[in-house]
Amino acid sequence: MENRKEIQQYHIEDLEGQIWLSKSAVGVTGEMAGATMALYRADPLGNLNQSDEYLVSQWVTGADGIYTVTDKVNGRIPEGYQVGDLRIHIETGLAEGIYYLVELSAPDYYTLAEPARFEYHLDDLVQTIRAVNEAVKGALSITKTGEDGQGLAGATFEIKAYKENDLDEPVTTNMIYGTEPVITVQDLPVGEMRPDGSIIPYTYTLQEIAAPEGYSVNPEIITWQFEPKQGDGQSFAHETVVIHQESVKDQKTRLYFSKQDFDVLGDDNTEGAFIDGAILSIYEVTGKDEHDQPVYDKDAPFTTWTTRKLLRSVTYCCLRFTTHDDVLVPFFTGKDP
């Protein structure tokens, strides 16, 4: 008689944890390349601790390659993706617990996504955890001053944005009136978003259209582009704004006067016409008389000068005016030599 003992052999395999970690942006379909991401295990209290002790993995989005035809026929392409799209990053071998998906560095012109907290269990279906970027908003700060550095209110500016290599037709145009010496313009788009999410910066122009009372318009047209990252090279924090600063300086209004002899004007109305030695005066007009003529104090000229020929036979005088409570109307008289 023979005793038999049946032995059943089993192959025991530990379940391998797997999680799909996606990186996208508002307005972008699929994955976005160029972000540095990290997966952290939570500390004993369940909080995010970005020390090496809790770091599980770190990678750059887009480095996992693209989905292929082989992936398609084997059913390995997630819903919403197709052949040629960037792969979602996959982490395997995870233990159960709390994790954080953290963006360490965002692509140019984007703010950092907020850390995404999630819990993982081995018996869960495959989870997709997604970090979503938003393009940073731009702001322009304009400081308006006179030649003495004192702030000036009352200027009007025109701001235009242009696409790359197209400075003929602006994308946006804004007219800004400065009720204060420092003007801040918010919600300016930093650039044009391409289908893959990358942003090509706009070229902006700033031009003064109208100067404060008593000052002349600064003719300089200022150009700039918003910076892709902070000054220290770090990405913009979540919900922060990139601020560009410009200063526009105005000169007080200048008036130019000349004395001419119209009997000797040349073809260009200037040659040989300027007179040397004429005495001219400017007066402040205080009103008009019954004959609609200007009223002014003949004994109190604002200024008096004698014309002199300068280079290229040009005779002129340059004056600066400042207005007070009422608008001043200059009136000048003269005496020939």
Question: What is the overall silhouette?
Answer: elongated
How many helices?
Answer: 1
**Main beta sheet strand tally, sense and closure:** 4 strands, mixed
Helical residue percent band: under 10%
Number of strands: 24
| SS-based class | mainly beta
On the 0 to 100 scale, the average pLDDT is 83
Can you describe this structure?
By secondary structure, the protein is mainly β. It is 1% helix and 41% strand. It is built from 1 helix and 24 strands. It has one helix at residues 69-73; strands at 18-25, 36-41, 55-60, 89-92, 97-105, 110-111, 116-120, 127-135, 137-146, 156-162, 172-177, 182-189, 191-193, 199-201, 203-210, 222-224, 241-250, 254-257, 279-285, 287-288, 294-295, 303-306, 317-320, 329-335. The longest helix has 5 residues, at 69-73. The chain is elongated, with a radius of gyration of 36 Å. Residues 1-15 and 311-334 have low confidence and may be disordered.
Keywords:
single chain, mainly beta, 1 helix
List the helices and strands and how they pair.
Layout: E1 18-25, E2 36-41, E3 55-60, H1 69-73, E4 89-92, E5 97-105, E6 110-111, E7 116-120, E8 127-135, E9 137-146, E10 156-162, E11 172-177, E12 182-189, E13 191-193, E14 199-201, E15 203-210, E16 222-224, E17 241-250, E18 254-257, E19 279-285, E20 287-288, E21 294-295, E22 303-306, E23 317-320, E24 329-335
Parallel strand pairs: 1-8, 9-17
Antiparallel strand pairs: 1-4, 2-3, 2-5, 5-7, 6-8, 9-12, 10-11, 10-15, 13-14, 15-16, 18-23, 19-22, 19-24, 20-21
Give a short synopsis of this structure.
This protein is mostly beta strands and 337 residues long. Helices cover 1% and strands 41% of the residues.
